[in-house]
Design a protein that fits this description.
This protein has 2 helices and no strands. By secondary structure, it is an all-alpha fold. The longest helix has 15 residues.
Length: 51
C-alpha cells in the first residue's frame, strides 16, 4: 500500500526493502518528516509538547 504521507517502495509484508531501509538508516528522514506532520497537527491544540 502506498500512502502519500509515508510512501515506501516495496511491501512491508512481502519485501525486505522497507526493513533494509530501517536497518541502514535511509528511512529515518521519512520517519522524522511523518512525525513532524503529526506533531504540527497536534501541538496547536495542546496534545503534544511541553505542558
Amino acid at each position: 500500500m502506498q500512502d502519500a504521507l509515508f510512501s515506501m517502495e516495496g511491501s512491508w509484508f512481502a519485501s525486505d526493502v522497507p526493513w533494509r531501509a530501517i536497518a541502514d538508516g535511509s528511512l529515518s528522514p521519512k520517519i522524522i518528516a511523518a512525525a513532524q506532520v503529526f506533531y504540527d497537527a497536534l501541538a496547536p491544540n495542546g496534545f503534544v509538547g511541553r505542558h
